[in-house]
Structure formats: C-alpha cells, structure tokens
Amino acid sequence: MNRLLTDQLIDWKDSLGRKPLLVRGVPQCGKTFLLKEFGQKFYENVIYYDFKEDNRLVELFEQKHKPQRLIKDISLLFGVDIKPKSTLIIFDEIQSCKIALDSLGYFYDDAPDYHVVAVGSFFETVSPSIETLTLFPMNFYEFLLARNSMLAEHLKESTFEEGAFVTFHSQLEEYFRDYQIVGGMPEVVKYWIDTESIEEVDRLQSRIISGIENNFAKNAPHSMFPKLSALWDAIPVQLFKENRKFVFSGVKKSWRSKDLEDALYMMVRTGLIYKVSHMDKPDFPLSAYASNTHFKLYMCDVGLLRRTAKIPASVILDTSNNFKEIKGAIIENIVCCEIKRLYEDEIYYWSAENPGRAEVEFIIQDSGDIIPIAAKYGNASKTRSLLQYSVKFKPKNTVLTSMDKDKKDVLPLYAFWKLKEWLKQE
Question: N or C end of the chain: smaller count of CB under 10 Å?
C-alpha cells in the first residue's frame, strides 16, 4: 500500500546533506514494511536487521568501532558487499539497543555516503546528527488510495473550485464511513479491502490492542503497567461523554493526577494518545495560555478507539440522529489525528467561560495564524460556537469541517487531509 511518507523518504535519499534517518511511530503502523518496500524499489541491496530478534550486532556496537569498521563487519555477517549510496541498511527495533541508537550519529560524521535507517518507537531525545520522520497510521487519503487509487489520485490533483469532492460525494461518504470503522492500521485496512469482513476487522484490531498492552508490560516499569492499561481503557469512556474533558478520577476513583502523570506522559511521548489542552485565550505563544489540568485525550487511530470501546460497526453505519456523542467523538478523533500528521505540534481547544455554552474543538497554529477548527459529524453549514469565537477574537481564518458537500465555507470531512490547501485559498 502506498504511503505519504514515501515522498519524504525519496527526498532523504537524494538530499546532499543526508543524515542517518530514524523512522518512528506506534506499533503496527507499517514502519518496517514501508522501509523494506522502499529499499527494494530504490536500492540495489537492502540489509535488514532486527535488534529484538537477533543480538549478533549488539556486540559489534558495544565494541565502539567506527562506522567504517562496523560496515565491514556487517558485510561479513550478512555476506553482502555494502556499497555507498546503493545499499540501504535498516536497523529495526533500535530502541532495544541504546548503544546502537547512540552510535547512529557517527555515520553522519564518519561515513556520510552510507544510507542508514533506524526504526523504532518514539524517543525522548535524538542526536542532532540524526534526521527523524514519523509514520502515523493511515489517514483517510491513504485509506482511499488503497481502496480506490484512481479516485484518490484524482482528488489529490483537483482543486476545491473544480468540484470533484461534490461530484463524488456519495462514494466518498461511503468510504469515509468505512474508515470510521476500520481505521488506519495497514494490516486491518488490507484485510478489509480484500474481504470486507467486519468480524475479521474486529479480530485484527483486538490483536493489535493486545499487542499494545503487551508492550506496556514489557517496556514499562512493573508498577506502571496497571496505570497504563487503565488509562488506555478510560480514554474512549470519557471521550464518548458529552463533556469530553479527561478526568483522572474517571480512570479510578481513588486516583488523582499525581498518580497518573507518569503514565500519561509516557503514552503521549510514544504517540499512542494525543493530548489536546484547553486554552483561555488564542494568542502567542499558545502554550502560555494552555491549561495543565483541563485537556482531552484522543487515540492515535480511530479504529483502535472504536474497538477499545467495543462500539459495534452498526453504530457508525446508523444514519439516524442516534448515538450523537459517540459519532461526534469518532469524528473529532479522526480530525485530531489528521492535524497531528499535518503539523506534528501541540493542539488546543477553546471553550467559553460559561461551561457548555460554546466550544471550538481544535485550535492550531499555521505559520503566523491561529486557526480555530470546528469538527461536526453530521451536516453542519455553521456553528454557534465558531461564530461566538469569531466575534470575540476576530481570527483571520476559521475552519468548519462536516459532511456538508456543497457549502463554500465548509471543508468536507473526507477532504480534511487537504486542510493546508484549503487554508491557502481562504
């Protein structure tokens, strides 16, 4: 399946100042598959090594040899002549060998002609001699590209003025509903396209969730595991309520913020969840007006959110006005994930001083502009909350995204991946 990150990998390969590359992302988002496929397409040879499955290279790194010596040793180990520029070296699960991660930067200084990519989960700090890219679960465009490549490519090349999204509204609406059920984990997407079996989708999503929980047990301190597991399970429970603000006591009545801060920090850092903090005033710097105690939590993939909460697909497929809170949360999660992919920056939300009166789901910074984004699950051509925000703060641009198909001022949800292009035309 084609992924958007491939273009950035090609740019990295061809760049004159190329550094060793670290591709990071949550488990099962397709990092290893993408890099192997990239290597096969653009290099003569690929050397792939998994630190979790094989410890032969660990001793070589522990001896602290220079990169040129390491490359010779790896060549002998694999029986392959590693050539500069024509061989891609992939180090998978590199977080399992800290000394190997720390040594990556030396390739930039001592062996810059060799193309080295490391793969792993999110990291606290990375050497300035290492370039980083993040692979997220598939967004709706990538899902559409796998499902109907001709339509996806046509929409990518189309401008909003050309009306392609309106022309294909019914088809896109159906695909977008599927995406709300399936999400963006590549294995799940592939199986859905091949079989359209919701039962199998549920099974695969459950297996991925179990794998995430197993990672908690393997990689986190033993005392933190119950908190990580409970926090993960509590996110959809709180997100599907009318007031989506996350409350620590909602995880366990006896727990407070001090009991869960370390678990929350770890899950945010690994990219499994996204924290959207409340802000009182949309002004620069945004972080100065953000609350440390009032925030919402979203999951990295809408399919995992649905499955963790055991929401049946029939709820998503229901076209009535039932299950409003669930459908609204599903849409917000999709929009949040897309914002994170586009900007990889902090996200905020705003609400009026009187609780429940008005709320704008997302506030972002786009270059020098602060952009309010209202996300609605149904047909909405205007929102009172966005209007109230506009009267109060007079933003240069506002964004309303919903399922309306032919409203000039509404960005369709299934076109939200073109947000940056939408903002340029405003």
Answer: C
